[in-house]
Amino acid sequence: MTHKSTNITSFFFFFGKVWSFHIVIMSQTDMKFCSSYFLVDPTKASILDLLLLLFFPNLTNTGSIDSPPDTLKSVRRTFATRWIIVLAVLVQKILMLLRKPFASIGRFLTYWPNLLTANGGFFKLILHVLTGKLVKPEESSATYVSFVGCTDRRVELDKNISVGTIEYKSMLSIMASKVSYENKSFITSVVKNTWKMDFVSYYDFYNAFQNRNLTQAFVFKASSTNPNLIVVSFRGTEPFDVDDWCTDLDISWYELKNVGKVHAGFSKALGLQKNGWPKEIIPLGHQYAYYTIRQKLRDMFAKNKNLKFILTGHSLGGALAALFPAVLAIHGEDELLDKLEGVYTFGQPRIGDEVFGEFMKEVVRKHGIEYERFVYNNDIVPRIPFDDKVLFSFKHYGTCNYFNSLYKGKVK
Fold first, then answer.
1. Does 3.40.50.2000 match the CATH number of domain 152-411?
2. Residue 62 has pLDDT above 70, yes or no
């Protein structure tokens, strides 16, 4: 019995050490901007910590959880809540452990289709290898496509959808969301040469909490079909990017006064600062998604008062598109909100609680914004972050256009 107990203890100790990492310190954030918060750092939690939290919550060292005492009490009271925390953290830790293999698999599955295309197909590839004429694809070129692009190479807009139709903006948004996964050269070429529209900007935005660029977006003007429409498209969850998946699975939140609980990971990706959401910032060499795009829109509207804009994105990109007008509302940017015609998201994860949903419904109503959320069948992303009725309460709001496996749609 003693021997077995020693082995079990050694097992937990070993894995506790293996799974322990160190990155962002929670206290670096000034919490004065929010009325409450619940922040989970999976890099600080060992497997033993998770087991203790699940089965012996009163003995748990909550070093991986940063939250007011009252909130921590509710965590300890409810097994279902603790289970959601443990599951979310465990999945993130597994993903972090597989970061390099995931990235390698992604590069392999992306590079080889591009290699085949660059050489004109399989048989020509063999011929080029044998004759020493192998063409190696350039990852930054206008012909190099992402893994998403490899699975579906369509980039043309539907010629049957014209300006003024109900489907126009949502169909344009679908393609903008799809193309957002590509590199700058590819996006520029598609916008200019295929869509015959005006490419405005491509961005690689900084995340102040992870100290690197993690958020991408591009802006274009639909000049060939609607000269007064600007489209802002955020890149979504890349299939083999562990950071993107961990952001989707994060269950952390900030509760903002008169706004509700807002997802912490998406807020950080959009440009949250260490002191919250100040109306204006000094960038200090970095570009943050919300602040940079807002200024770009201000500059464009100053030159043309007739311009309007829409926001779009798939998966993580959809979350950022849906959160963008919320921050505009927090800052009282009524002029910009009045120019926002619609938000169109595809496979968007949850970004806030029911209070936040009510806040956004009022914003949408007040400014006449069309908000459309598209969901396909059993897609897991719109069903995360995980939800409970005690602590998290992440809920969707607004119109849901649901499509089953046969692509038959209905509005929920």
1. no
2. no
